[in-house]
Amino acid sequence: MDATFLPDTAATVARARQHAVGDLLHRTAARYPDKLAVVAGDLRVTYAEFDVAVNRTAHALAERGLATGDRLALLSHNCWQFAVLAFATAKLGVVLVPVNFMLGAEEIAYILGHSGARGIVAEDALAGTADQAMAAAGVDGGLRGWIPLAGAAPAPGWEDVDGWWRDGTATAPDVAVADDDPLRLMYTSGTESRPKGVLLSSRSLITQYVSCAIDGGMSADDVELHSLPMYHCAQLDCFFSVDVYLGATSIILPGPDAGTILATIARERVTKLFCPPTVWISLLRHPDFDTTDLSSLRKGYYGASPMPVEVLRELQRRLPDVQLWNFYGQTEMAPLATILRPHEQLERAGSAGRATLNVETRLVDDDGHPVPPGQVGEIVHRSPQATLGYYADEEKTAEAFRGGWFHSGDLGVMTEDGYLSVVDRKKDMIKTGGENVASREIEEAIYELDGVAEVAVFGISHPYWVEAVTAVVVPKPGATLTTEDVQAHTRDRLAGYKRPKYVVLSEALPKNPSGKILKRELRQQHADLARD
What we know:
Blueprint: H1 7-16, H2 21-31, E1 36-40, E2 43-46, H3 47-63, E3 71-75, H4 80-92, E4 95-99, H5 105-115, E5 119-123, H6 127-137, E6 143-147, E7 159-160, H7 162-166, E8 182-188, E9 196-201, H8 202-215, E10 223-226, H9 233-246, E11 249-252, H10 258-268, E12 272-274, H11 277-285, E13 299-303, H12 309-318, E14 323-329, E15 336-340, E16 354-355, E17 360-364, E18 377-382, E19 389-390, H13 394-400, E20 406-414, E21 420-425, E22 429-432, E23 435-438, H14 439-447, E24 452-462, E25 466-475, H15 483-491, E26 502-505, H16 519-525
Parallel strand pairs: 1-11, 3-4, 3-5, 5-6, 6-7, 10-11, 10-12, 12-13, 13-14, 25-26
Antiparallel strand pairs: 1-2, 8-9, 9-19, 14-15, 15-16, 17-18, 18-20, 20-21, 22-23, 24-25
Helix pairs in contact: 2-3, 2-4, 3-4, 5-6, 8-9, 11-12
């Protein structure tokens, strides 16, 4: 059938067929206008009210000069305004750049400069850091939105964003957003000294939402608590945005405080909760766990790192009515790639499960050839969920997509029936407390300290952090270097979660004949540090 049209007709047809992230909220609001959409502190809004707040904010952003393809940075803890901005930017086709609030000014400055952000929205407590970052990045002017989480009045040069969503035009902006227009630029530590900007399109995100909803057993009846950072794609795109798509109710907390999570589950009759293993462990260990009414909870999710088998057994014993899912993936997959389902948890403990609905996963050798079941290979994926590429970095994009597959950098083993176990990282990524930390970034920071000859950074197993950042440092001959010197040096240069939990001084590092540092041997040598 001939589907060739004149440009005006083609554009009209495309507009009628549009199904972008910004459309999801509007369509949910049409289905469930009076349903409770978001609870954040004292604020409780319906889907109709949420949609109007997003429309008003989108118009406010447009009036301040933002348009399709522009980048807007967002530096904030979880809050109502974060939720509004996530969908307001999507309605405009503006690329949202969520920024890790634990980063220092220099780290944020790199993201602002690399992304070419035309403005930043920051919570009041972080606005000073944002000012320093913009100055370091050479950003002069541009939009500066102030989120008054602590109730502080905007500093000079900043504008209160609450005026954006409370007043103005309530109808949706008429903006065409194509399936593969980028909507998110997520900065991941990856395995490099500098973070990479992962571009995610509307199609990447929506396809991933479908995978999450279908294989993750999600529905409009869910009442979900969101406490992990929404700057991370796991909380934002595996859970919050899927809830909006389906019409579920979202309870937003500023952070994962165990006592607050437990009290909120009881008060709001929460049915669904995502936490990395470290937070599940903190809930189990909290003195209020056994006295809090958790009877409403039905669905539990974990990811970011494997769940210790003993903790898994304890969860199933103490929360017998809660079904558990393990989500594995990476930011570049928007981020879900494989799922281990509830009935498989104990039978296949430690497994990352099988490829989710819209993903094809296999293992390959260094030449890109498939490896047979039971052998170690690199985990690669094909899916419309995959990133459009790394922003302003064609070389890294080409390397990641060589052979027509996205190369994760993780190593795994797969069974005959497709169950994946992640056994190592091809490049030295440390997953600590649910965050990704690049060992090379820490090594390069430590190398800046006078008296350091060599350094190796790696993760060791830890009962709380799952992996603890550990540095083994070789001093230069004659140097008077202490572990305290190294710790003080990293405090000035790195976010708290990146700093080594353990620093060891050594005379030498183990190496193979070609001079490569043997980090696996170091992990074995220093495995007992976390047990002392």
